[in-house]
Amino acid sequence: GQGVEQPDNLMSVEGTFARVNCTYSTSGFNGLSWYQQREGHAPVFLSYVVLDGLKDSGHFSTFLSRSNGYSYLLLTELQIKDSASYLCAVRPTNSAGNKLTFGIGTRVLVRP
Amino acid sequence: EAAVTQSPRNKVAVTGGKVTLSCNQTNNHNNMYWYRQDTGHGLRLIHYSYGAGSTEKGDIPDGYKASRPSQENFSLILELATPSQTSVYFCASGDADRANSDYTFGSGTRLLVI
Fold it and tell me: Does B90 touch chain A (CB under 8 A)?
């Protein structure tokens, strides 16, 4: 069946890094997006990838392997304020209305 | 500044009552979406719209109706609210013509059905 899978939680240390994994199985593929959601707030768009490889956006990077149905969001030089949930969302090829299928979200906790 | 505004922010409703959640966007996006977010499920699509006058069923439409009277406004209607519809509801808008279009979300409506 179709789905987007992410781990529930991830803990890391301030100043280090965190890698949030996402695997997907959808009817075709037309791009993958990452969103950040702070507790009690709306999701905010971070990044969109559609080609294989690593996309470096400074504080965070995103990786995609379409053949493996796999992506990750890499957060570097972590700060306490990076503590949030990170949502992976996939747009299937046959997605009428440009609909996104979201994963459950990974709650990242950055500790001192 | 372009935005998506939801109202109300919080709502308590009684079982069997009618609830209307409102959403307004100033992004001039054709597409609008209603999601609910629950612990353990993430964001699930209820209804969406391609433009004024259009409403389409999402993945979990049962118990919900939607209305898109204009480009800017998209409402979610619970005709007979049930406790299982207690959730946080998010409205979003997106550009229909760009595959890489991100969604702009509203701040959410926290609904409690008692």
Answer: yes
B99/A87 touch (CB, cutoff 8 Å), yes or no: no
How far apart (Å, rounded) are the C-alpha atoms in residues B46 and A51?
A: 29
pLDDT tens-digit map of B58-113: 999 999 999 999 999 999 999 999 999 999 999 999 986 666 668 999 999 999 99
Check CB contact under 8 Å for A99 and B33: yes
pLDDT interval class at B23 (50, 70, 90): very high
Distance in angstroms (rounded) separating the CA atoms of residues A57 and A112? 24
Question: B7 vs chain A: nearest CA distance in angstroms?
Answer: 14
Question: Does A53 lie at the interface with B, CB-CB under 8 angstroms?
Answer: no
What are the C-alpha distances in Å from B21 to residues A110, B34, B36, B77?
A: 35, 10, 12, 6
Q: What tens digit of pLDDT does each residue of A33-48 get?
A: 999 999 999 999 999 9
